[in-house]
Amino acid sequence: MAAEQTSPEVASTLLRVKGLRKFYEQRRWLSRRRFVVPAVDGVDLAIARGTTLALVGESGSGKSTLARCLVRLEEPTAGEIWYDGKNLLLLSRAELRAIQAHIQLIFQDPAAALNPRLTALEIVVEPLLVQGRGTRRERRERGLALMEQVGLLSQWAERPAAEFSGGQRQRLAIARALALEPRLLILDEALSALDLSVQAQIVNLLLELQVSRGLTYLYITHDLSLVGHLADEMAVMQRGRIVERASAPELLRHPQHAHTRALVAAVPRVEAFTSGQVAP
Ligand SMILES: Nc1ncnc2c1ncn2[C@@H]1O[C@H](COP(=O)(O)OP(=O)(O)O)[C@@H](O)[C@H]1O
Ligand SMILES: [Mg+2]
Hints:
This protein is an alpha/beta fold.
């Protein structure tokens, strides 16, 4: 698709989703009748390189299903996913494997996601080990550098993950996600389990990393508290569809859709976060 590659708007786009659908078939308890859950029901999205798109919506609106489709943990029922000008759904296994390192997903609960018996350093370098990259010594050096970049002291490298606080574990999860030099980070409720002050510290870390590494973020949340500080664009999801989309400041100040208004109203101090500093 020549037009895809030549238009300047498209050249700045890292990820584009077109008409994405994911339907689940379910059965009611003790019933033979199947019914279809349209978890993602025709989503179009685009994220420009080096920017953050916040995907917001109440629980059950389809955000995680969309995220799982993007990293191919789920097969979409229909639609297209274009990453850096390539249709992810049409790639060979080998091509897909190479691209999968570029797109990393970070979940909500780092305690559950990280093996508590592994040391901090083992957790960070595991993706390198799995991909067979570098020598043991190179991986160690790289792991220590990554720990430092996310604000963790290298003398904590041999500590088991279980001894870290929630915020520190999420920093570890970020360091691990960065190990394969991704370009797109998908953060699915990644900060939702943390206190607001710890969330704010990690938002600041994400902003620093975005500048230093040119990262692109898809920041998924049901909680708009810090969205204004992190996001450039916002898309609001309800029942599998995008119901509103705008620049983050515009959408937080002038929400149009009833669902967006409800999400904004649920955060009493949202205005405070749309301008100025994040509270310590
Ligand atoms: N594996 C699955 N099988 C059947 N239904 C599912 C599955 N995963 C999610 N769903 C349904 O899809 C809808 C969207 O869920 P989800 O993507 O987790 O939403 P969110 O992340 O916004 O809370 C919900 O109705 C949920 O029950
Ligand atoms: Mg979810």
